[in-house]
Amino acid sequence: MKTRVLIADDHAMVRAGFGALLAAEPDLDVVGDAANGEQAVAEARRLRPDVVLMDVRMPMMDGLRAAKLLLDPPPGGHRPRVLMLTTFDLDEYVYEALRAGASGFLLKDAPPQDLIAAVRVVASGDALLAPSVTKRLIDEVMRSRLVPPLPSVETSMLTRREAEVLVHIARGLTNSEIAASLVIGEQTVKTHIGRILAKLNLRDRGQAIIFAYESGLVVPRSGE
């Protein structure tokens, strides 16, 4: 089964370049493209791709609004994985897209092989998040907004160990680094993450990171 990909970007050369790059891979099938957010939503609903590459900034409807519509479909609607494409690694639009359930983001000037790998990672159901960049993004947004912690009872649903794992995730640690820090097995870390997502009704690691900040479980560190 090939992974079906839709490319949404307002620059025709970007669409053509990304399309040619991905179509050359035997396991990827570029089923369509779109020049703005409205087209992206319409084409995604018509073509039902597995992954949508979504530029953040587009005319008529930006990528953030389009991503939100695709990630919250009507009952019975198709819900693709969305990978945000951006020029800036500290783009507040990316933060909002991750909050809405996007599976990650990729800088548009990333090497070609990174784009191919990113599509495969997202298609497999994983979140594509460079931990250090994601942490900087969220720290920056939270500080600039001066957002008070959400009054949340959800964190009380977590065991002490699960809360520790969630803090480590939000601090940008990989599973292997969390395992080493807490002196537990990597498979145990994966089990804890699965329970965290289920208890908090979160889709993936990206939403878990944002929840940790917005709930006040993790506070941005000044000067980072």
Automatic annotation (TrEMBL):
Residue numbers bearing the 4-aspartylphosphate modification: 55
One MF annotation (Gene Ontology) recorded for this entry: DNA binding
Gene Ontology terms describing biological process: phosphorelay signal transduction system; regulation of DNA-templated transcription
Name listed for the protein in its UniProt record: DNA-binding response regulator
Protein's organism: Sinosporangium siamense
CDD domains on file: LuxR_C_like (cd06170), REC_NarL-like (cd17535)
Residues covered by the Response regulatory domain: 4-123
HTH luxR-type domain: residues covered: 151-216
Keyword Membrane found: no
Pfam families, A to Z: GerE, Response_reg
Keywords: DNA-binding, Phosphoprotein, Transcription, Transcription regulation
Lineage, top ranks: Bacteria, Bacillati, Actinomycetota, Actinomycetes, Streptosporangiales
